[in-house]
From TrEMBL:
<feature type="domain" description="Nucleoside phosphorylase">
    <location>
        <begin position="179"/>
        <end position="271"/>
    </location>
</feature>
<dbReference type="GO" id="GO:0008930">
    <property type="term" value="F:methylthioadenosine nucleosidase activity"/>
</dbReference>
<dbReference type="GO" id="GO:0008782">
    <property type="term" value="F:adenosylhomocysteine nucleosidase activity"/>
</dbReference>
<dbReference type="GO" id="GO:0005829">
    <property type="term" value="C:cytosol"/>
</dbReference>
<dbReference type="InterPro" id="IPR035994">
    <property type="entry name" value="Nucleoside_phosphorylase_sf"/>
</dbReference>
<dbReference type="GO" id="GO:0019284">
    <property type="term" value="P:L-methionine salvage from S-adenosylmethionine"/>
</dbReference>
<protein>
    <submittedName>
        <fullName>Nucleoside phosphorylase</fullName>
    </submittedName>
</protein>
<dbReference type="Pfam" id="PF01048">
    <property type="entry name" value="PNP_UDP_1"/>
</dbReference>
<dbReference type="GO" id="GO:0009116">
    <property type="term" value="P:nucleoside metabolic process"/>
</dbReference>
<dbReference type="InterPro" id="IPR000845">
    <property type="entry name" value="Nucleoside_phosphorylase_d"/>
</dbReference>
């Protein structure tokens, strides 16, 4: 099988599948792509994804669903900081200039924020919450000097951040977007703001150095990425933005629009299968 398409919940799956069918991009039993539920939350997603990868043995995995975007102001501040830190590292010879990509400090914020209702691919996924403490006092596993996984029989060493694969043809700018996976979604703007700050701190300390910026949160991405890394299967993640992280007023969420935007991205991707 070429592609294993994972979706956390039945609600998301049903709308994704109906949308793809309406576009002629999905045929049951085609053999090239299989759509499965990976479960809700980081623990279920990791366990179920491992099982599904072992069963289907795909060439690639795609995780699709909804997510919450961090406030544009927080993303912009983080982007400027990330570019400034990377520029300093280049000047000191700590990283190659190519690590900065095509963006410098002046245009660091251009096009990075995620809009509610849109869908986006990500270059990295980061685990938030495993370590010591909580809130602004939280220290991640990596900052403590611990890795999430050090295989004794070879394989990938896994830290707080896992690199994702951008599909062919996707704007490289998406590669700067980092998805943050937590056990719990942000309950309010304060929690979301602290999560962005923690994520950027982890990104600054992670290796290899990247000019990545935390732009959105989900609850499954890192778990699926962990399973894919262990199985050495490339993973791409596309998330539709249903709400601003920390906004718990579901009346203002745009779930259907977000999933429909995911369908648009997936339809293009599946045309290449």
């Amino acid at each position: 099988m070429e592609t294993l398409l994972l979706v956390p919940t039945a609600m998301e799956r049903d709308r994704v599948k109906s949308g793809l069918k309406a576009r002629g991009a999905w045929r049951e039993g085609s053999g090239q792509t299989k759509m499965e539920l990976c479960g809700f939350g980081i623990a279920a997603a990791a366990a179920v994804s491992s099982q599904l990868i072992a069963t289907h043995r795909p060439s690639r995995v795609v995780l699709a669903g909804i997510a919450g975007a961090f406030e544009p102001s927080a993303v912009e501040a983080s982007a400027v900081e990330a570019s400034a830190v990377e520029a300093s590292a280049v000047e000191l010879g700590a990283v190659e200039p190519s690590a900065l990509g095509e963006l410098g400090t002046d245009d660091a914020t251009d096009g990075l924020s995620c809009c509610v209702g849109g869908a986006y691919w990500f270059g990295d996924v980061l685990c938030d919450g495993i370590g010591v403490g909580e809130g602004s006092d939280h220290v991640s596993a990596g900052e403590l000097g611990w890795l999430h996984l050090v295989p004794e029989n070879g394989g990938s060493v896994i830290g707080d951040r896992i690199k994702l694969e951008l599909p062919t043809g996707v704007d490289g700018r998406h590669g700067r977007r980092c998805l943050v996976t937590g056990c719990a979604a942000s309950a309010d703007q304060k929690m979301a703001s602290v999560r962005v700050q923690r994520a950027q701190r982890i990104l600054r300390h992670s290796k290899p150095s990247q000019n990545s910026v935390a732009v959105a949160e989900d609850m499954e991405g890192f778990g699926v990425a962990l399973a894919c890394s262990i199985a050495t299967v490339p993973l791409s993640i596309v998330r539709g933005i249903s709400n601003i992280a920390g906004d718990r007023n579901h009346a203002s969420w745009r779930i259907d629009e977000a999933i429909d935007s995911v369908v648009t991205e997936l339809a293009v991707l599946l045309e290449t299968v």
